[in-house]
Amino acid sequence: MKYRTKYVLTVAVVGMLFLFGLAALTSSLLRSITSEEVEHRAKVINDMVSILLHPSIESGEFAQLKKHVSSLMATNELVYLYIYAEDGTLLVSEGIHDHDHDHQQPLFSENYGGYLDQAIMLSNSENQEFNIHYGVKASDLLALIKKADQKVYTLVSLEVLLMIIGSYFALKVVSRQLSHLRKASHHIANGRFSYRIPAESCGDLVETAAAFNYMCSRLEHYEYIQDKKHLRLKELSRAVEQSPVGVVMTDSEGVITYANPRFYAVSGYKQEEVIGENPRLLQSGLTETQEYSELWETISSGETWQGELRNKRKDGTLYWDKTIISPVSSDDGEVTHYISVKEDVTAYKKIEERMRVATTVFDAASEAIMVTDLEGVITMVNPAFSEITGFNSQEVLGESPRILNSGHHDEHFYKEMFEELKRSNRWEGEIWNRRKSGEVYPQWQTIAMVRDEDGEPLEFIALFSDISKRKQKEDEIRYRANYDPLTGIPNRSLFNERLEQALLLSKRNKVGMALLYLDLDGFKQVNDSYGHLLGDQVLKHVASKLQDCVRESDSVGRLGGDEFVICLPSIKNSTCVVNVADKVIQSLSPALDLGGKRVHIGASIGIAVYPADGESSQELYEHADIAMYRAKHRGKNQYCFYEDCVLAKS
């Protein structure tokens, strides 16, 4: 036998042994990986079974438990699932358990039944134990591995034949190709499912490499899906836990199965006080029953309901709860859960209430209200503004308040106004403005500067009222307090003020002044003979004549009855006083024709001069009165100086 033949045969034998050994190793690794995957799948499903079934076991809702079991079986990851009570009673049965095979034997044994038996035990708050038996499906992975085994061994057999009829170089190529499979097996054994066997390096083993790569891609995709689901679930859970609004989940019967921290913070309840309860524990009794009926009717039909409920916290305080409730349905359209998103809007309600009150006050206020921006453009007025000014809102919005300017005030007035606003954020005072009709009228106005949270000026608000009637009444009161209602000349009070002012002026300027005290002669006879009406006409006539006899700077007053007084300030000598006294006597001497009756009157005048006859108003009154009586004793209808009375006594 030639050396090449021996060599080829040796290589073929060695290669055959090597390839079959490598195939066996690959098969063993694949079986090991598959076993680990089945165990991993069993662990994942074990977690899913615990998470999904435990709430129903805890609440005792076995109808809901069957729904969850059905949803688990729908994943096609389980062959069967049985749930036994503590006494052995079968509560739930889904799928068929194959008792002809031993499912506890190694995964690739001949008598293995195609799935892995698993059992877990769950207990509720009452310490009742429930045994859950289920079979984790492994037949799909077994079929895939068996197919891969068949292809591997087929390729190995073909490779052995090629080695036998090939050359030494073919043997080297096969060895190189098998090295890629060995490398890939180690990657997969280490869990690096992303590794792929390069197709161009596989030669005749390309189909095996493709199957191997396909298996790796499936494993990688499954791992990616699981990681993505876990990550998504983690993200959603974190978002719900950290949500600024309350989130509550109930089952189809309205029993609370979950609530986030925000809900507990708003309601004041603890988790153990809420889970398993009905949301009606929040009811305050202030929401209409019809509202709840409409709520249930809406969500039971699969639609979303939203509205505001008046709820009650654990401590009994009330709050407004803006609620959105959405049903969660299964694939067959059956409602399984309800998710409620709840927001405490009590603060917003209070703001709305204050806004309604402010709006009502704004519209109902008897004072005019005008709002302008910082540029002085009118942005808002109330109905009272239109009533007072005559301008409707459409005529002034966007205009300047100068539209009301009467021209009564100068620039200095407005400059001081705005300086006060800048200094104290407020100005208040009387201002004269013009109505739409052109009428100028007085206002009492308050202007306030509104600032934002940072203290920056935002706008101006002006409140004003028409004080025309008030000023008219004030003038009437002032007139009645200071003027004689019959004659219209100053009464005793106003005359005394003017007398005091004249005295101060005379003292300051060191000049004289005189007080003339008049008492009418014959007036009592007229009053008694013709009555008070004609007597009043006589008094009006006297007051008019007296005003005609004096200067503009002089003052005439009526003390009461038929007594009148005249103040002559700043006189240079007694001649000025004599001239006035003569005028008075002469003007009152002629007979009066009043209502067809001729009346004769006169006046006795007493005169006191400052400072000779006194330095106070009281002294001047007393001395003028004495002089007046002296004039009457001398024959009436004449004047007499107090000085003459003093000389007569001496």
Helix content: 40-55%
By oligomeric state, this entry counts as: single chain
Overall outline = rod-shaped
Q: What's the domain count?
A: 4
Distance between the termini: 192 Å
Approximately how much beta-strand content do the residues carry?
15-25%
**Order of strands, widest sheet:** 6-5-9-8-7
Average pLDDT level? 82
Question: How many strand units?
Answer: 21
Q: Provide the low-confidence segments as ranges.
A: none
Q: Main β-sheet, in a few words?
A: 5 strands, antiparallel
Gyration radius, in Å: 58 Å
Q: If helices are DSSP runs of H or I spanning 4 or more residues, what is the number of helices? A: 19
Task: Look at the helices and sheets and give the structural class.
Answer: alpha+beta
Features:
650 residues, alpha+beta, Beta-Lactamase, five-stranded antiparallel β-sheet, 19 helices, rod-shaped
